[in-house]
Amino acid sequence: MHPGSLRSWFVSVLLAGSALGCASASEVDRLDARVSSLEHEREQLRAKMAEDMGKLERLHKMLTDAEDTLRKSGADLGARLERIEQDHPKLKGNLEAFDFRVNQMLKDLGVIKKELADRLGWTVVYLPSDLPKDKDGIWKAAEERGKADKFQEAKAIYELFEASFPDDPRAPQALVETGKLLERAGDVEGAIKAYQGVYERHEQSPHAAPATFRIAELFVLQKRCDRAKAIFQFVEKTFKGTTEAAEAKTRARTVMGECK
């Protein structure tokens, strides 16, 4: 099977969750046409995503610059007001009001960033302003924030690394780490998507088999054993010779009993 078609089949299994069965020639033709259409749409989507990423990076810079300006302005003006307050005690109320307004504006910016991330998936807004430019520095920053349970920032940095350095051996691992972060945060659906990305974008990576196997395990945890069985079967056929394939063969036969 062509790699692109195989990827599309995998995605359809995840989304539809239907069991594999026999199909007539006409049904196969219709499915083949649909797969070709989906692959074309996927390429268009990738191009659109690249364009949107540029827009998001510009938006992130605007938000970061706004935060920096507010913080610097607040610090400078606050210091000035404190000096004036020493000579004019009546200005104390003005200083408190100013601090309140600055803090409220910073909170509002935080709300905007959260809405962009939660509703639109624009996690790029969580990229820290002091993020290093080199790939080793970016990777280290992601690891540090992951250890500190700063899930949103770590996820954004790992995603940036994978998108910026797709040929680096750590690129698929970045998606794996993203999946682990999302699992720790309780976002199972998000974790499944992250692990799915490992196979879709790095199917030759040694991380592809365990990441795909983990998807099936997460479906089992959700008691969605029909989907889990389909993924176990997929792992068995796709990653022959691996430890995951051997284990998936056994799990595919027994998984339905885990949902009783």
> What is the CA-based Rg, rounded?
24 Å
Could you give the order of the helices and strands? HHHHHHHHHH
Query: Please, how many helices?
Result: 10
CA-to-CA gap between the ends?
Answer: 35 Å
Portion in helices = over 70%
Strand content: under 5%
What overall geometry do the principal axes of the alpha carbons give?
globular
Number of strands: 0
The main β sheet shows up as: none
Kindly state the mean pLDDT as a whole number? 75
Low-confidence stretches: 17-23, 115-122
Please identify the structural class as seen in this structure: mainly alpha
Spell out the blueprint of helices and strands.
Layout (H helix, E strand, L loop, with lengths): L2 H14 L8 H63 L4 H29 L14 H13 L3 H14 L6 H14 L3 H14 L6 H14 L3 H14 L4 H12 L6
Helix pairs in contact: 1-2, 2-3, 4-5, 5-6, 6-7, 7-8, 8-9, 9-10
